[in-house]
Amino acid sequence: MGENIQRVCASILTVMVVMLSLSEDTKGNNDFAMTPMSEKGLLPNPMSCVSDARKIPDCVEALKQGKLKDIKKECCIILLGLPEDCFGILFPMRFYYRVVLKITCKLIGIF
C-alpha cells in the first residue's frame, strides 16, 4: 500500500512539474530548455556524457523511474559531477531530476 501512495505522489509531482515547465516563460533561462546547450553555447559532446552514465546504468534508470531508494553514493558523486549540458542529455527535464537527485543524496547522507 505504501509503494502505491509513493507512486501516486511521484506521478502527481511529475505531472505538476511538466505542466509548470511547459507554461513557464524561459527567456534567457536554460534550466528548462528542451535541448541541452553547453555554457559556451556549443552542443555538448554526448559520447563523454554517455560514457560517464554507463559507469552507473542502474542509477540513471532508477532516477528516471523514480526508484530513489536504489540511488547509492557512487551515483550521487558521478551524476552531480556532470556538467549541466550533460545532465540535459541524460534526463528530459534536467532541472527537475537534478533537484530530486540533490535532495535524495542529502537524505542518504552524501552531501
Overall mean confidence score, pLDDT:
75
The unreliable regions are 24-38
Main beta sheet, described?
none
Based on secondary structure, the structural category is mainly alpha
Fraction of residues in helix:
55-70%
Cα distance, first to last residue?
31 Å
> What is the gyration radius calculated from CA atoms?
14 Å
Q: Given the structure, what is the number of helices?
A: 6
Strand content: under 5%
What series of H and E elements makes up the topology? HHHHHH
Question: How many beta-strand segments?
Answer: 0
Give the CA-based shape: globular
Task: Present the secondary structure layout.
Elements: H1 2-23, H2 46-54, H3 57-65, H4 73-80, H5 84-90, H6 94-107
Helix pairs in contact: 2-5, 4-6
Signal peptide: 1-28
Keywords: Signal
Protein name: Transcription factor
Question: How would you sum up this structure, described in words?
Answer:
- The chain is mainly alpha-helical.
- The protein has a domain at 46-110.
- The chain has 6 helices and no strands.
- It has helices spanning 2-23, 46-54, 57-65, 73-80, 84-90, 94-107.
- Helix 2 crosses helix 5 and helix 4 (73-80) packs antiparallel against helix 6 (94-107).
- The radius of gyration is 14 Å and the shape is globular.
- Residues 24-38 have low confidence and may be disordered.
- It comes from Arabidopsis lyrata subsp. lyrata.
- Residues 1-28 form the signal peptide.
